[in-house]
Amino acid sequence: MFCGTCGEQIDDNSFFCKKCGAKIYSATAENKKPKISLEKPSDIKPEESEMEKITDTPETMDETITIPETLKHIKALPENHSEDIDKIKELTGNYKNIPEETEENNDIYGYENEEEIQNIPPLYEEYDDYNYDNDYDNDYENDEEEYYNNNAPQDYYPEYDNGYYPPPPPEPEYEKPVKVGFLRLSGAGIVTLFTALLLTTLSLMFCIKTGFSGDVIKKSFEKVDVETLLECDTSFRNGETVNDYLYRETDFNNITMGLADKKDFRSFILGLGLSDFTSDNLAVYADYLLNGGDKPSLTVDYMAEYMFSHSDFSHLNENDFRVMINNSTHGWADTVLSVDEWKKETGFDFAVCGYIFSFITLSVILALIIVLMIWTAVITDRRGRYFMGFYKFIFIFSGVICLVSGLGTVVVTPLAYSQTGNFICYIGSELFTDFGMFALATGGFELIVGIIFGLIKKFISNRTQA
Question: Does position 191 have pLDDT exceeding 90, yes or no?
Fold first, then answer.
C-alpha cells in the first residue's frame, strides 16, 4: 500500500509512514460505493462500539482500528486511475515516490483488497454524484442556503434573525383634520337654509298631491251640506247669508216676474242637486292640475243645460239659467271655468302643473336634498357635531311649517267657522281635512327626525369634550 500523504510505498500492516511520519489507517471496505450525507463531519458522533479512540501509546499500537459507518463515504478509486495519480501528485507535490500504474499495484489503487486509504481527498469531478469540495463546511452552508431558498414559506423575510418574523405593520397615516372656521360654517349654513326650503317645498307638494287628488276632493265635497252652506255668512256683506247674496246677484226676483222670494229661491237651489254636479267637476280640475288628467270642459252653457234639466220651475227656460249664472259671476263665468282662458290671462300653461306635482319631480327634489346634505357634511369636514346640527335645523324647520299648515286646516279652519260662520271657513273645513292630516303626519315625522339628529349632535359633543 502507499502513503496517502507523500505516496511512499509502505507495508500493509504499518501504522506510520517511514518517510513523512503520517498515520496510516486500515479498514475493511464493507460498501465499495460510498454513502452521501449532508451532515457536517463535526456533527458526527459515532458510538463507542463503532469507533475506538486512537492513541500514540505503545499499548494501543497493536489494536485493530476500525472505520465507523458514518465515515465510509469516501469514494474508492476506479480501476482506470491514471488521471487520478496525476492529481495526487499535483496535490502532494511529490512526483518521485509515486510509482507508475502497473498490473502488480493496480489492486492497491483499485482497493480490490477491501482496504481504504484515509485522508485522500476526492478528486473525481467528472463523477457528479460523488463529488465533494475540499472545504466541506462551505458545501454544508451552500446546501443549507439552497434548502431554505427552495423550501422557505410564503412569508419569508431573510432580513430577520430566523427569517420568519413578519415585518411590523406600518404606522397608520392620519390625515390632518381640516379646521372648520367661520367661512366653512357660513357656507354650510347657506347650503342648509336652501336645503330646508327645498325639503319644506317637497313636503307641502307631497301633501297637496295626496290631499287634493280628484278622488279625495270628490269625496270631501260630497260631505258639504248645501243647506248649511246657504245659511253661512258671506265675506261681502255683514249679516248677509249666501242664499240672500245669490238671490240678489242672480236677479231671481225679476226673472220670475216677482213670483219667487228668498225662500222660494232656497228651495230652487236645493232642488238642483248641485252637490254631485260640483264634486264631479272639481275632481276633473284637481286631476288636471295635479296628475295631468283630461282638460276640463265646463262652460256656462253646460251648467245652464244641467240646471234646466234638474229644475222644478217649469216656467223657466234654459236661457233664464244662463242669465242667472252670468249675473252672479258678473260675466266672468267662462273666463273662470276655462283652462285656456287661464293661460291667456296669466301666460302660464297650467298643464305643466301635472309634471311639477308628478312623483318623478318629487323624487328628483328628494335626490337633490340628499346631495345637499352630503355636501353640508363635506364642507364641515364630516365633523358630526357640526353637520348633525345643520341636519337638525333642516328637518325641524320643514317639520314645523308642515305642522302649522296641518293645524291650520284641521283645527283653525273649523274653529274659525264656528266663531264667524263664514262660508269659506266652512268649505275649507270640509275640503282641506285630508290635506291637513297628511301635513300633520309629515310634519310630525320630520320633527322627530330633527330631534334625533339633535340628540346625536349632543352625544358627539359630550364625547368630544370628555
Answer: yes
